[in-house]
Amino acid sequence: SSGINAEWPLRPGMRGDMGWCRKDGSMEIPRCVRSYEHVEIMFRLVNSKEMKMTNKAGNVFGGVVQAKEVIGGQNPDELEWEYGCNDGFNDNAAGAICRTQGFQHGAQVPVSKKVQLLKAAGMMALPKSITDDMSSSFGWTNFACDHDDTLATSESCKASRYGDAIADKGVKAMCFSFDRMAVKCFNADDFGIEVDVSFSKKKIICNAQGSKQGSAIDLGPLNLQVKFLVDDEMVADTSVYKKEKSTDDSALIPLL
Asked: Per the CB 3.0–4.6 Å rule, which of 42, 114, 183, 212 could disulfide with 68?
């Protein structure tokens, strides 16, 4: 159709065919590339259960990273999954991986000791589809991104083929099973506290849950203080309250 060139397909970014500018003046712009050079990078997360990175519903939010680089008209089914080496890996790159899994952010994590021990003992029972998972070769290393708002194909992300790194640096670039890339994915990047307040005739209960990067935080050591307000005014220090008998049935006032 008019305006579309099949020989130069668009490589979209996080916002599809739209570019944007960041506060630091850098920018993200979708690019047109030759059809035979068009690259798609597929990711999957494995060993998630062993790393305790599945929730109660069985949904995966982290694991060891495997990737396929699909160039031009290649059939992804004919390509092998490859591990990434965590040399040079950063949290921005982890975020780029996690965005392909439906999350907003990510962080790099070490491969759990349990997974390493099971691998070493040959006890890892995995579906054939996840394969020779344990014997899959390293394909990538030095994967890093400058910003936490991109996909892996962004110009702000760089990586090296593992074989090229070995040829260039020799044993200094060599990676082992404990060097495999692993990520934890989440949606809320900032520290936050969710508060649930309930009350009975005798007391008010304030339940607070803190979290950072999707993980619960023990609030005890933070020495947090709770203040109760009625009509935007702080209530005097007292442990007994009753409902205010007014049009606002939810208001609380101190018992005199």
From this structure: 42
